[in-house]
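A brief tutorial aside. Many learners find it easier to grasp structure tokens once they have seen a single protein encoded end to end. The record that follows does exactly this for Ribonuclease HII. Read the sequence first, then the structure, and try to relate runs of similar tokens to stretches of the chain.
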Amino acid sequence: MLLEKYSNYNIECGTDEAGRGCLAGPVTAAAVILPEKFKNSILNDSKQLSEKKRDLLKPIIEEQALNFGVAHVFQEEIDSINILNASILAMHKSIEKLTLNPQFIIVDGNRFKPFKNIPFETIIKGDGKYLSIAAASILAKTYRDIYMNVIHEEYPMYNWKKNKGYPTKEHREAIRKYGITKYHRKSFRLLPEQFNLDL
């Protein structure tokens, strides 16, 4: 059973990101403020749910949340500031999109940087513990998947529609065969033998 809140503040926002381990595309974050007594029996960490269930939850969260924001940080920026900083930046950008100011922020994971002097807590595996982080993980994942499905049309040979940019065997084979695209993260180890790959 996921917990409603971590702090004693009225307006607590949960934030999480998706796409951190991908070889292509953005890292996407969401911030969600849920109403008190929010209940949903299916809501869980997005990684524990099927795509069908995530797609079912997305409109429910958007409708019932008091406020939510979603932001992408793209591959050029990931390459320039590194994936950890890009993940935190995406979370900051998603919180910035909230029209309701959170009084407290709970973050999935163990790394975060202060945002506008708002108190925060990082929670390892928070998306499996708190409703608002779980909701943020669903929005981050579904919005990122939508983006990957769109760029899949441009470069279907990488099958991003299926792998969403993650380092699957098929994705690596396509990189080996076709090289990289403008959507690939050049600072990532795209192929195991990359030290002798001419990028």
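Self-check: The mean pLDDT is 94. If you spotted this yourself, you are ready for the next section.
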